[in-house]
Design a protein that fits this description.
heterotrimer, A mainly alpha (about 170), B mainly alpha (about 130), C mainly alpha (about 500), A: about 170 residues, mainly alpha, about 80% helix, elongated, disordered C terminus, C: about 500 residues, two-stranded antiparallel ribbon, 19 helices, 2 strands, about 75% helix, globular
């Protein structure tokens, strides 16, 4: 699809806009509708669009799987550690009041950090879902071709089931 | 409010719920089962979201005016969580379907059951064969 | 830090999960899981002590928001009793997991396996601790979703794990969704999700049709999750084809937590005297319970695969717990709690011992254990004692469960049910005898793979066996704790 100039140009304009909008939804979530879940999904959609237009391999190159796993875990840990920070400041778990100078600024800091953790995890989980499922597609197409081939020439099928029994992890 | 027309949202929810549940129970194809399950879950989201509606209420954003009538935000927040859970369930479900297809070559329930039963039988045959040869 | 223990109980394994997923290198993730489950067990033991000495519920406000508004964690006599069961079993299963996981799961997946392992434990501990009805759903899904993934990880060895995990997912999600529908109706009626608050406000609208419907949805959803007959068909394949470590953890804890949640919702929220429906509901649960006890035991007798056999017997044992609940009395509820505790110990012992065999020869069946009694006597003795405890032989914990169960039934003059309970327990002798016959009375066939045992293989299982015998002989404290737990729901809160 990367050969079509219209799609390429439009998506190149769209991707940064989508990301910017995601950041707006993320950080405006303190004052209006928005927040980590929505922002994460919007942010991830930029990566999905990128991979759909320019191919899976380039998409993976932009955001490698290891980094993605790190981001998934970092988001959850940021959420948890924000709560633990308030434990050490002498309040209950996830009590943001003690995080800032006043209760109000504490709530601000707390919700900002927690929502950022949520956004990070949701975005990277969505990206991970897309790449994992899309990555299997070529594999499955190959498999159904092989199956069609096998059905055309039946005698080989008996031995096949035994070999397959170990289960498939590719 | 007690009139049937006033409760149209519940009829919608129940219709969706039964469509989804029927698909889960009656369809043999695993993908169709997952689609049914998603519809079933969505009906519950609608149940919660419609319960948060307050007549003439606005979005629950602080305006400074205590007289403002606003919709109940709690069910929406609960359903935000439930939607995330639903996404996770769907992802795990389809991942399992792909793995099933990769190792069995089918996602039809009846074919799968035959293959699983054959494997169960094969297991005990293998064992018998082993003892007899010993 | 003492006052933060209720939240740390859930938080440690929950935050351990993302850390475990990141750890690379041999045994790192396992070490972290061991450390955290050990800590969780220690915390739950301390909580039990604190709750016992305080004599009242310990309440923890998350985020500093007090009861009806915020989510609270409640440690009362009931949750203080069930927490150590789950965390203790999780700890012992984690000890055993190292060897089992190395034998059965691809090395690349170890980090993710332990991440899911910690998540499912965190989810179960959360369901027990939380005092918020919707929070129960969230934790239920956390533990279930990671459980589906764990079961599916058995696919490297046995591809039947995949369809088993899928069916488990479909039925588990339907169950959880039913629970949420019921909860939605309750929220519409009362406008609250806090369990204590719900109970109070529900009293005003008790006889409305919506509240009956809510009870029906919630009970049905939880029956599915606890695999009560006839909603148990997901359980056997899921336990049989899962990795051995996962079978042990889930068989010992997963369904028990749902039993606990059912008790909490049915008795804690709807109340014993639920608008005169107590008799009808009790009768329904009793019938399903006794039917499950027979169906599970009979299916176990004809089974040759050991994991499937004991999974079927789990159906029967869950039936006994249901009988305790269905008696709708103080003694009955106490018997359910006692059996919940004891059954976790017995099934933990059995599945850990079976796992030690399955990890060596790929599958534990009547044929693979032929003559094993002489080759691996210590492991086989663990299975034997576990089996005897399932029957309810004196000096094992199973006996105590049966005594209180029968006492609860006789209190209400359910003579027939008491007799049926006795008969179905005696029938369990058949499948235990099959194991004795295969393991001790038959010669090990020539050419059969040689089974070995070292302390690594049998220590985790024997820890559970010793606990089974210990609680069978010195049952006093357990019985007291179970009565205290029952008192939370029936008659004055403790």
């Amino acid at each position: 699809m990367q050969d079509d100039p219209v799609i390429r140009v439009v998506s190149k304009v769209m991707i940064p806009t989508v990301m910017l909008f995601a950041l707006y939804v993320q950080f405006h979530g303190d004052y209006g509708p928005g927040g980590g879940f929505q922002a994460g999904v919007i942010f991830a959609s930029a990566f999905v669009l990128n991979a759909m237009i320019f191919g899976l391999n380039r998409g993976r190159h932009v955001w490698p799987a290891n980094l993605n796993l790190l981001a998934i875990c970092a988001g959850v840990l940021l959420y948890g550690l924000t709560g633990i920070a308030s434990l050490f400041l002498g309040a209950n778990y996830l009590d943001y009041d003690v995080l800032g100078a006043t209760a109000k600024s504490g709530q601000h800091i707390g919700i900002l950090l927690v929502e950022f953790g949520v956004g990070l995890t949701v975005a990277s989980v969505m990206v991970a879902l897309f790449f994992t499922f899309a990555g299997r597609l070529t594999h499955i197409r190959l498999m159904s071709k092989m199956q069609a081939h096998e059905e055309a020439s039946p005698p080989a099928s008996k031995t096949k089931t035994k070999a397959k029994k170990a289960g498939g992890r590719s | 409010m007690s009139s049937l027309a006033g409760q149209w949202n519940y009829f919608l929810v129940i219709a969706l719920m039964m469509i989804g549940f029927y698909a889960v129970i009656a369809r043999g194809n695993m993908v169709k089962k997952m689609v049914g399950l998603t519809i079933f879950q969505t009906s519950v989201f609608m149940l919660y979201i419609s319960m948060g509606k307050v007549s003439n209420g606005t979005a629950p954003i602080l305006t400074g005016d205590p007289q403002t009538l606003y919709a109940n935000p709690l069910p929406h927040v609960l359903i935000l969580t439930a939607i995330v859970v639903g996404v996770a369930t769907t992802a795990v479900g389809y991942a399992l379907i792909i793995r099933v297809y990769e190792s069995y070559g089918t996602i039809e329930d009846d074919e799968l059951i035959k293959m699983i039963e054959a494997e169960d039988a094969e297991d005990s045959e293998d064992m018998n064969g082993e003892t007899q040869s010993a | 830090m003492m006052q933060h223990l209720p939240v740390l109980q859930v938080l440690l394994p929950l935050l351990g999960a993302p850390l475990a997923a990141l750890l690379r290198g041999r045994d790192m993730a396992w070490g972290l899981a061991l450390l955290l489950t050990g800590a969780a067990f220690l915390i739950s033991a301390i909580l039990f002590g604190l709750q016992y000495s305080a004599g009242e519920a310990l309440i923890y406000d998350l985020g500093g928001w007090p009861a009806p508004l915020g989510i609270v964690y409640v440690i009362d006599a009931a949750s203080a009793l069930v927490l150590p069961v789950v965390s203790g079993l999780a700890f012992v299963a984690t000890i055993a997991a190292r060897r089992l996981v190395e034998a059965e799961i691809d090395a690349r997946d170890h980090a993710l396996f332990y991440a899911a392992w910690l998540l499912t434990i965190a989810g179960m501990l959360g369901q027990i601790t939380t005092g918020d009805a919707f929070n129960i759903f969230v934790f239920l899904e956390i533990s279930s979703l990671s459980a589906y993934a764990l079961v599916a990880m058995g696919a490297g060895r046995d591809r039947r794990a995949l369809p088993a995990a899928f069916n488990y997912l479909i039925l588990g999600t339907v169950g959880a969704t039913f629970y949420v529908i019921g909860l939605g109706l309750l929220y519409m009626l009362t406008g609250t999700l806090n369990l204590t608050d719900l109970a109070e406000r529900l009293a005003e609208v008790e006889s409305t049709r919506a509240s009956f419907t809510a009870l029906a949805f919630i009970a049905l959803g939880l029956f599915l999750k606890m695999a009560l007959f006839p909603l148990h068909f997901w359980l056997v394949p899921a336990y049989a084809h899962a990795p051995s470590a996962v079978s042990a953890l889930m068989a010992a804890t997963a369904t028990k937590v749902s039993v606990y949640v059912l008790i909490r919702l049915m008795f804690g929220v709807f109340g014993v005297e639920f608008n005169g429906l107590a008799d009808a509901i009790g009768l329904l649960i009793l019938t399903l319970g006794i039917a499950g006890a027979f169906a599970g035991t009979l299916a176990a007798i004809i089974e040759t695969d050991l994991k499937k056999l004991f999974a079927q017997s789990s159906i029967a044992q869950l039936g006994y717990m249901a009988i305790g609940i269905g008696a709708m009395s103080m003694t009955g509820l106490a018997a359910a709690f006692i059996h919940l505790f004891n059954h976790a110990l017995m099934k933990g012992a059995l599945f850990l011992a079976i796992g030690a065999i399955a990890a060596q020869v790929g599958r534990a069946s009547m044929q693979t254990i032929e003559g094993a009694g002489r080759q691996i006597p210590i492991t086989m003795t663990a299975i034997l004692v576990g089996g005897l405890a399932l029957i309810g032989v004196p000096l094992t914990a199973g006996f105590i469960s049966k005594v209180y169960l029968v006492r609860a039934l006789l209190e209400q003059n359910f003579w027939l049910l008491a007799a049926l309970t006795f008969i179905s327990s005696a029938l369990a002798l058949a499948y235990v005898w099959k194991i004795i016959e295969a393991a001790w009375l038959k010669e090990r066939p020539k050419g059969a793979p040689v089974l070995v045992e070292t302390p690594v293989h049998y220590v985790p299982a024997w820890l559970m066996v010793l606990a089974t015998i210990g609680f069978g002989i010195f049952a006093g404290p357990l019985v007291d704790a179970a009565y205290a737990a029952a008192a939370v729901f029936i008659g004055g809160a403790r």
